[in-house]
Every structure is written in structure tokens, then in C-alpha cells.
Amino acid sequence: EAAQTTQTLLNYQRGHSSSPAISLLHEDTINALPKNHPYTVSEDRDNFDYVMDIDELVAMKGTKYLKKRTKVHAFEREYETQTQVKLLDLYTPTVHASIIALFLRWEKQRNRTRVDTQRELDAIQKLLRSAKKFSLHGIGILVGKNLIAFAIDEVIHADHGVTHFEKADMQ
Fold it and tell me: Could you give the 3-state DSSP secondary structure of residue 17?
């Protein structure tokens, strides 16, 4: 059934696209394909989910976090007096505009094309339009009045949360 559905989707795309592809397939779907399937399957590390231990991340101890600590210290030395961390009001159009502007800077700095980022941009815009329907929290880092980093998070229950999106200006 997975092979037939995959083939149907690709046949449809061949009629509508010069490079048919299916993305964001669950591993179980891929594993359900016959062993000798004719498809090229590759992982997209930019769309991996991560489970993080917040206490470990905050402490940043050990060699595992050496590069992150170095970057944090360099940032603190350069911007310490100009930086503020603040909660973002995800219900206001000016915050929406700042988040989208930062996303577009990130896209350019990462040399990503709009084809590569359109789904994520659409998802961020949709989430911002629907922010009142969820228990979302936004946090931003500003240098002066410029938003240089943001995270949009949702509290699931007392012990768990999900970071839906996070981006930073890499300059």
C-alpha cells in the first residue's frame, strides 16, 4: 500500500512539476516500501526533531557544549550592554513583522532559497495568525530595538514544552 500511494503521488507530481519529490515522510512509511523500491530516500537534517534536557542545555558543561559556550561568551563581550531578552507579544502585527523580517534575514544568511523555506515561512505565518488558539510563548533577543533571535514555544503541560520555531540573525 505504501509503494502504491508513493507511486500515485509521484505520478501526479510528474504531471505538475519538473522534479517530482515527496518530503517529510515518516520513517514507518519509508520502511513499508518494498526492499527493492526505485526511490531515492535521503534524510533532511534541517527537519529533525530534537529532545533536549533543559537543565543540561542551561548548564552547557563539558566538551559537548564548548563551541556553544565560546559563541555565547563572544556575543556577551560584544553586545552585553546593548542586549535585552524580552517576552514577545505574539498577538501584535509589529511583532509578527519583526519575526518575519528576521526569518528572511536568516534565509539569506543561510543561502537558502524560497523554495527551500516556503513551507516553514507559511507555517510561521499561519501560527502567528492563529496564536490566540494556542498556549504560545514568544521570547526574543534584541540588540537595541532590532530583533536578532526569537523562539516560539508552547507549554504542553507542567513538565513538557515544544519549541515550534527558533531563528537567529547569524551576523
Answer: coil
